[in-house]
Specification:
The protein is built from six helices and three strands; from the N terminus they run H-H-H-H-H-E-H-E-E. The model has no long low-confidence stretch (mean pLDDT 78). It is mainly α and 185 residues long. A hairpin with a 4-residue loop joins strand 2 (166-173) and strand 3 (178-184).
Length: 185
Amino acid sequence: MDLYELVGRFLLLFFSVLILYFFSNRKDNQTINPLIVIVGLCTFSLCYLFTRIEIGVGIGFGLFAIFSILRFRAQTFTINAIVFLFATITLSILDIMYPFEKLEVLLFFQSIIIGFYIIASLIVNKKATKYLNAIDVKIGYENTFVLDDLKIRKSIQEKINIENFEFKVMTINAINNEIEVKVFY
């Protein structure tokens, strides 16, 4: 594999993952950390390395063990993040391992995976993100306060001067009489 082929494969992976990342972050209240993109790039690099050197089965089991430990030690991922992670790993393995002589088959698989991902993303999210920004707001309340959308909306408008927004109640702190709200605007 020459340098031009390697760069071409890497660029194909890079743009594919960017497309997947764009369609993964269309929900208002769930975004995928951009650092997860690095997993696909690392998988690409590892697969390239493994095609160049002789390795035993033990290394494969060792990598599986590392990923298993990371799964139990890391924060819980959303379904959206897990699907994104699996898709990027699949694309990175396809891009580096598939024979370059059959480039049209590789592009077919890439477009099918990306196409299904986009269609599923549009079906699940139903609409593109309307609000691009989000902030956390703490609202104080009295003991007679009732969780009513209109009252919370009015309290948010008093705190920040925004007319068009959506919100999601994150936590209710009964000790400090505060409600933490994520506001999308």
